[in-house]
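Researcher: Re-running this chain for the archive, since the previous output was lost when a drive failed. Same request as before.
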Amino acid sequence: MASTPSPHTAAKAHLNSLLSSPVNHNKPSNLSFLHTSSNPSSIKLLHSRSASSFSRSISSSSTTAICNVLKTVESADISLSRDLHGVVSTPKPTILVSEKLGEAGLDLLRSFGNVDCSYDLSPQDLCAKISLCDALIVRSGTKVTREVFEAAQGRLKVVGRAGVGIDNVDLQAATEFGCLVVNAPTANTIAAAEHGIALLTSMARNVAQSDASMKAGKWLRSKYVGVSLVGKTLAIMGFGKVGSEVARRAKGLGMHVIAHDPYAPADRARAIGVDLVSFEQAISTADFISLHMPLTPATNKVFNDDTFAKMKKGVRLINVARGGVIDEDALVRALDSGIVAQAALDVFTVEPPPKDSKLVQHENVTVTPHLGASTKEAQEGVAIEIAEAVVGALNGELSATAVNAPMVPPEVLSELAPYVVLAEKLGRLAVQLVTGGSGIQSVKVVYKSSRDPDSLDTRLLRAMVTKGIIEPISDTIINLVNADFSAKQKGLRISEERNIVDSSPEYPVESIQVQISNVQSRFASALSENGNISIEGRVKYGVPHLTRVGPFSVDVSLEGNLILCKQVDQPGMIGKVGNILGESNVNVSFMSVGRTVKGKQAIMAIGVDEEPDKDTQKKIGEVSAVEEFVFLNL
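Model: Regenerated structure tokens:
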């Protein structure tokens, strides 16, 4: 029987056949998607930003996403040219830069490829150009939509975002078309922190308003009396790179600094004299609040009427993060009522904001046009960082700034596909159960399997648990490439344990358990005997299920949203809670009750299509037999 050639041998044979065949200058090179360093035959597979879209791409047509990437590799070709002596050479890649980039970055790109600097392209012009480009570098102004990837016709290999946020890049489309996306998250940290301090100090002393007044010919010393910073409490909401740098500078101004960030290590905060506190404590005790949180579904308009109502009257607000974290209409109302004395804003929900914006025109608001990263030094640093990432990607390399490119053998990815969804949802559930200001530092993932531990590749599952824990309240996009790096950056220790059980070896994993230690829980019943938040799940008929919460057994499909109720185990409870939800027009998709001892306590898990309003949740809590409950967004 003839032996099957290895992927590496097949790739070499394909290359040889190309060298002896007519040159096709119109077909792009895709060999950068072959990992040729330590393991020439492994393949870089891409997945989407969200687990839900990832699972859909797999389940919709039996691993469509995997097949798309394999087709990219299988159809790999090389655009070759021959010089006058017949020597074969590979043409330089074409790199389109659609927004201004620092000269140092451009020099690096020019040393590697042909650089086309075409600024202010319309969407139509970008689509017309992109089919001739191997790489695209953008800032926040260029929208890289699905239409752009379709117009590229498979040639575009990498999109580089010169900055942190990637809201303007369609990651799902990039993944489907086999295009790597990288960003530059570190180079503008100091510039953003300095701008935050500049807004803080200028707001406190009415610099912008008094400057405008003098230029209008006025001399109003008594009107623009400011406030001192010494001894005032500054709450930093989001204690990442920028937030921690702001804290250092604010300490130098004599301020008392507190911070809220569920992932910030307490010891790192203490090292610079910062106390980590809960969200509620931060906003209710601060004189100044500086925002450094990402824009995610969990933080969208998190500063709203309810939030402002809990603040100390006369608080001052600074935002150099993302405009969408503030409900701008609510902020105007808070300014008019005096709850918020002043605001200093560098970012807005819509940029540029409307010319007649009440917020921008408010006399107690200082505004700048998104200048957080706008220093010469930061611009050069970002340019170099993104240029290095793009050149590396075109060379087939990967870095921690890649946001959609894990590397997993296709057979492993195919087998683990449903468990990938389970792992992320367990992580997402677990983090929502955490409360308090101590931060998450230690996570343990326990796999039960009939297979030998050495034969079970759990890297992707660990990455997806990390993704579920970090992504809901962070702008870090987690995949196999950057999961461990991102967890380490946030002071998150993730350990794994593999337990052999007597089950069918046909399935790689019997169950996955996620434990978070040394934290408080919003739902005390999720705590195990050793005091850790503990949840467990398994895949049943291809669908992820939650099977244990703390010591309680449950059996619910991890779809939609979930309400967990701890109750006295007595008749009629399902009907009472179900009626409350029904009266509020909240559709129930499933219910499951688990208990430890008959007639004692039980947990009722209820699947709902949408989040019940506050009145409905209050009614559930008022049911006499309900001891505690929590709503969880999946």
